[in-house]
Specification:
Elements: H1 2-12, E1 16-22, H2 27-35, E2 41-45, H3 61-67, E3 74-78, E4 92-93, E5 101-102, H4 103-112, H5 116-119, E6 124-128, H6 144-151, H7 157-168, H8 176-183, E7 189-193, H9 200-214, H10 217-223, H11 237-242, E8 248-251, H12 259-271, H13 277-289, H14 297-307, H15 313-323, H16 326-338, H17 342-355, H18 360-374, H19 381-388, H20 392-395, H21 413-422, H22 427-435, H23 442-454
Parallel strand pairs: 1-2, 1-3, 3-6, 6-7
Antiparallel strand pairs: 4-5, 7-8
Helix pairs in contact: 2-9, 4-8, 4-12, 7-14, 12-13, 13-15, 14-17, 16-17, 17-18, 19-21, 21-23
Length: about 475
């Protein structure tokens, strides 16, 4: 009935439609309702669909809202957020209502094009939640030589940076801003926050001030046009002034006809579990045919890890086609020679092995070189995790020698843990690690004991093997 009423109202009503997803505070939407005249604006609360019967093929309340056919001119989302790297809520809008909405579902709906009225139609989207438009997580950046290497293979610097970000996070980027720009592709204005957003009661008077200053909000909406790559959207300076005391920021949705939107569309299809594995292996083969295919590397790697060697004949044929792609193979092997960033090189090796560009034996010297580089001081948790995250069959064959290990690594907890994962058989490493059992720091002694316990019990020359308890 809600779907019928929403569709009927939209067909017979020429007012602007303000859609709200009120998962936490309702102060923001009540402010809009108090300022915008009913003669020009109608309001639709989309979480009302959470109280409707589950529809066939639409188990989520948001899916039912999408199916209603509502065409939103303005979308207001209020809920706790924070992205995966910032707190308990992860990439999900949540709050006191007990209703939630994951960013992953928004991305999937955009990918499937099953929710255009809510995601693509608005002229303005307000995302009242923490870090809804945050930039990528601060961390390692690509060195200039690696950026240049990617550039030689048709990968722009911005995409090269995204490859690093996504590879480090198993195929997903840490930028809420970039992900929201894809979800709301074609929307002129998307508003949000880079850090902790103000509570609803605090933001309501600021929003009220903005609406007073704008005057005729309907005229403001009519002036907005969809973004185009060649013509960036002018910033909403009036809203920025009103929200100046906060970490407010704004963006435009991606141009639906632009290269960046196309990239997101291609990679989301690999993640789409509603599509058959056969169809997605065929998509993988087409991605590898494209110029600059390495920009899809994180998504390709995540897909291959999730699905492994296919069993279906058609999927096997698609994977064989990838393996026979001489141009793509040449690009991958060239980048393995040119790049220096270990996490990206490891992902390239994994993909190359999975699709048949490298045999296990051909890959082993490269993997050993990467492991040895990761052991060079200073070693931190990320280096340890990269080593310990290598496939077990690879770790067992790397044969790290004493000359590969700097003396200070035997006094570093991350270095000792990495050695525990590598399980070297070189008795000189065992001997030097055994010396760490006498370290003044208890945690170093414990790490050394744990590492030695998992190593092969090789006898040291002229000495009994260390006793590990």
């Amino acid at each position: 009935m809600l779907a019928f009423l929403a569709g009927s109202a939209a067909a017979s009503d020429d007012r602007f439609t303000v859609c709200s997803i009120t998962i936490n505070s309702d102060d923001e939407i009540r402010t809009l309702q108090s300022r915008l005249p009913a003669s020009t604006f109608r309001f639709v609360e989309l979480t009302d669909f959470a109280r409707t019967t589950v529809a066939e093929g639409e188990p989520t309340w948001f899916g039912r809202a999408c199916r209603s056919g509502v065409q939103c001119d303005v979308l207001v989302v209020s809920g706790h957020f924070g992205n995966t790297w910032a707190g308990d809520y992860g990439t999900t809008f949540a709050g006191t209502s007990g209703i939630s909405l994951p960013l992953e579902e928004l991305e999937q709906r955009r990918c499937e094009q099953t929710c255009p009225g809510i995601l693509a139609n608005p002229r303005e989207v307000f995302l009242f939640g923490c870090k809804t438009l945050s930039e990528p997580a601060v961390g390692q950046t690509l060195p200039p030589p690696d950026v240049a290497a990617f550039g030689r293979h048709d990968v722009a610097p911005a995409n090269a940076a995204r490859i690093l970000d996504e590879v480090k996070n198993h195929g997903e980027g840490t930028s809420s801003r970039e992900r929201m720009q894809y979800v709301f592709g074609g929307v002129p204005h998307v508003y949000g926050f880079t850090e902790v957003a103000p509570a609803g009661k605090r933001v309501a008077p600021l929003l009220d001030e903005y609406l007073r200053n704008v005057g005729d909000y309907s005229a403001h909406l009519r002036r907005l046009r969809p973004p185009e790559s060649e013509h960036p959207i002018d910033a909403n300076t009036a809203l920025a002034r009103a929200l100046q005391p906060t970490c407010f920021t704004q963006a435009s949705g991606l141009d639906p006809h632009g290269a960046q939107f196309a990239r997101e569309d291609q990679t989301c299809a690999l993640r789409d579990e509603r599509r058959s594995v056969v169809e997605r292996f065929a998509r993988l083969a087409r991605l590898v045919d494209a110029p600059g295919f390495v920009t899809y590397l994180p998504s390709i790697g995540a897909f291959l890890r999730a699905h492994g060697a296919p069993a279906d004949a058609q999927a096997i044929a698609s994977l064989h086609r990838v393996g026979e792609n001489a141009d793509a193979r040449g690009t991958a092997l060239a980048l393995l020679r040119e790049l220096r960033t270990p996490v990206v090189r490891l992902e390239l090796v994994r993909v190359a092995r999975s699709v048949g560009w490298l045999s296990a034996q051909e890959a082993l010297p490269i993997e050993r070189q990467i492991a040895v580089e990761l052991l060079r001081p200073p070693i931190w948790g990320e280096g340890r995790d990269l080593i310990c995250g290598m496939d077990r069959d690879v770790l067992e064959q790397l044969d790290v020698r004493a000359e590969d290990v700097a003396p200070e690594l035997y006094r570093n907890e991350f270095g000792i843990q990495a050695l525990g994962c590598l399980k070297p058989v070189d008795e000189r490493i065992h001997e030097r690690l055994a010396a760490s059992l006498g370290d003044s720091r208890e945690w170093i002694r414990n790490r050394a004991a744990a590492a030695l316990k998992v190593m092969s019990p090789v006898r040291l020359a002229g000495q009994p093997a260390p006793q590990i308890h």
